[in-house]
Design brief:
379 residues; alpha+beta; 6-stranded antiparallel beta barrel; 15 strands
Length: 379
């Protein structure tokens, strides 16, 4: 009977974590968590267990992907095989850090056994001290895994140092701009949709690899993180982010990278409507030119506050463009933090609330801003 109760409870925990409960069931279960600390610990432990299993599965896919990439490049003659005692021997990139991967896999296995023992040993009469000890063990393993993740990332960087550069044929792109000097950028979702590789290039021509860390198609927003050892953190961002609604006829300007040009381009205009196409309340209408490739550019007011992200133009009307209001950047960042898996840098990420551009001439403002605007290249 006890085993049947445990099985039922585990199934309930899984349905709760996966969001498969209806509203009434979820409310009842959340009240149960509040009233029973052991069930609450069980939810925490099972959540961690599922995260570790997902991470291990991702490593399996990563291993397979690296092998396929290396094999393809070797067949194309872009990577030379190493000859050992007269025989060709392909050295896979994964071997450079498979020891660390094995450690991570072991930790995932230990975590699995630990959580399983928690579930099978769960009983309303179980000593509270035992549950606390198991919880502490889980936290210890989580910290250990986080340390291994850092080692894996370092080894990944080392593994690419001696590899020949392979030019990636970028086929589309847009613009993005910094929301934090540590390498976090925002752009439009449609710019990076279905991307395989992403690079960002600053106004001086330096190019860095980047990755997507958050998307919201409904808002047409994506947040990127520069993932390149050559990137150096930038000083505090000079512009700020405006949360409210701007007044009609507000003078605005933008910087971006139209597809036809390799250098940054300035544009100006004014806010012509507080709503976007067909009365869309998430966006606003601008009276200004918008060229292809400018999607993702910041729209700033005279004080140097970002009021919107440029995300489109009206094909049949010259000089009419649309922007996603900047309040949606705050919303996207909050959602990203909710999905965060222990990254302290993300937890501390805040949008700048004070502009240092007020009172400067437009030329001076542009000089301070342009280092934070990037061309986004996608294939």
């Amino acid at each position: 009977m006890q085993e049947h109760d445990n099985t039922f409870l585990i199934e309930a925990v899984e349905r709760y974590i996966m969001g498969e409960m209806n509203p009434d069931e979820r409310l009842h279960f959340e009240n149960l968590r509040k009233s029973d600390s052991e069930i609450d610990q069980m939810v925490v432990g099972h959540t961690l267990f599922m995260q570790k299993m997902n991470r291990y599965n991702e490593w399996q896919k990563f291993h397979k992907s690296l092998n396929e990439i290396h094999t393809n490049l070797s067949e194309q003659g872009k990577i030379d095989s190493i000859r050992l005692k007269g025989k060709a021997k392909v050295v896979y990139i994964y071997n450079r850090f498979k020891k660390t991967a094995a450690i991570a896999a072991s930790i995932a296995g230990i975590t699995t056994l630990l959580i399983t023992s928690l579930f099978l040993g769960f009983s309303p009469r179980a000593p509270q001290s035992q549950v606390i000890k198991l919880s502490n063990d889980v936290k210890y393993l989580a910290n250990k895994t986080h340390q291994q993740d850092k080692e894996i990332n370092n080894l990944k960087m080392q593994g690419t140092e001696n590899q020949p550069a392979v030019e990636i044929p970028y086929t589309k792109g847009g613009t993005g701009f910094m929301i934090d000097g540590k390498g976090y950028l925002v752009t439009n979702y449609h710019v990076v949709e279905k991307s395989k590789n992403i690079a960002v290039q600053n106004s001086t021509g330096h190019e860095y690899f980047a990755k997507i860390i958050y998307t919201d198609p409904s808002l047409d927003i994506a947040i990127l993180k520069i993932d390149d050892p050559e990137f150096k953190q930038l000083p505090t961002i000079p512009y700020s982010f405006f949360k409210g609604h701007s007044d009609l006829a507000t003078s605005v300007f933008t910087l971006g990278f139209p597809k036809e040009k390799e250098d940054i381009v300035y544009g100006q205009g004014f806010l012509s409507s507080r709503t976007g196409y067909n009365g869309d309340t998430l966006s606003c209408q601008l009276q200004m030119s918008a060229n292809r490739g400018s999607s993702g550019s910041p729209i700033l007011n005279q004080s140097g506050e970002v009021i919107a992200i440029l995300n489109g133009r009206l094909k049949d009307a010259e000089g009419v463009a649309y922007g996603i209001e900047s309040k949606n950047i705050f919303k996207a960042l909050n959602e990203l933090k909710k999905q965060n898996d222990g990254d302290s840098a993300l937890n501390n990420l805040k949008l700048n609330s004070k502009t240092s551009l007020t009172g400067l001439s437009r030329t001076q403002q542009l000089k301070k801003i342009e280092n934070y605007i990037f061309m986004v290249k996608v294939n």
